[in-house]
Amino acid sequence: xxxxxxxxxxxxGQTLAYWLxxxxxRPTVVERAPRLRVGGxxxxxxxxxxxxxxxxxxxxxxxxxxxxVRGIKFVDASDRAVARMNMSRGGEIEIMRGDLVxxxxxxxxPEVEYVFGDSVRSMEEDGGGxxxxxxxxxxRRFDLVIGADGxxxxxxxxxxxxxxxxxxxxxxxFAFANADAALAEDRWVTMYNQPGKMAGLYRSGNHDQxxxxxxxxxxxxxxxxxxxxxxxxxxxxAFGHETSWRVGExxxxxxxxxxxxxxxxSQVRLPSWSSGRVxxxxxxxxxxxxxxxxxxxxxxxxAYRLAEELASASDHQVAFxxxxxxxRELVRRKQQIGPxxxxxxxxxxxxxxxxxxxxxxMGLLSRSS
Length: 369
What we know:
Blueprint: E1 3-7, H1 11-22, E2 26-31, E3 42-45, H2 48-56, H3 59-64, E4 71-75, E5 81-86, E6 93-96, H4 97-108, E7 113-116, E8 120-126, E9 129-134, E10 139-142, E11 144-147, H5 154-160, E12 167-179, E13 188-194, E14 197-202, E15 210-217, H6 228-239, H7 247-256, E16 261-268, E17 274-275, E18 278-280, H8 283-286, H9 295-312, H10 316-334, H11 338-344, H12 349-361, E19 365-366
Parallel strand pairs: 1-2, 1-11, 2-7, 4-13, 11-18
Antiparallel strand pairs: 3-6, 4-5, 5-19, 8-9, 9-10, 12-15, 12-16, 13-14, 14-15, 17-18
């Protein structure tokens, strides 16, 4: 029986582990956090990702937990809606990342070994497998190792090299945190812009807790992606002098939130997603950035394809190659995010006006009185 280490109890990692187990392999999921990471923002399941979720038997629960957001409204400093964009999703379903992670864990856990509170320290590959040493002190042997450990993947660093070679900075930084639901309009995303910045509120129809969002333009900044105090300092430097709309109130809450998330809007670009007996899936291999709205879709579809190829091919190198050939085009399309960023964060006031005017002329926005 093939022993496979999956690094990261993420959307990609748990989807992959579920399907590997279904195909008779023995996956072990190791997660750095002491428990499931159930925070995060809204993520979209669409097209092939919904088909995979149906096959996993979780789509009814995904629909029940859907965010039920009607659309986006853009507001001025006095909180007057200057335009609204209705979101007609068709077959697309938005669910909070934490809810999806929990659902995936429910269906995967009976057949998958989980190890929380540990991470990979080193990997030594030979012709028969990979010897993995863990930060907790254990050493284990696996046939294959799959990195599903996100934008700052430790597996990618160990197997492919420093992340600076593969991360493409998209010119913006992004943060989100919990917010008082009373501040937000139910079932709407509210966005307030200053040139090169956006502060917003996200209020799901099925959740008591709202989310605060912040995006700002910047050249690359030097910081540790695990140092939350540094994140608070950078966010405060970007928005601390803003007194209009509800920015100050949202910032105060975000800085106090222990689950504050802050990072660059970045994409991962790799010439290959595998090296020997190690492969990558999800954000570790092809992060399209939160601005794409495609992270969950790429993770679920990519994980399913990788598991299918490993099950059908007699050689892991053949499976890895087929996985890339099947998934590359979808990744290429989803990484084209320029219009998304320009809509959310216009560079100047002229851009803010042009966004509303253009979208209105195209019938996407209905101007509020």
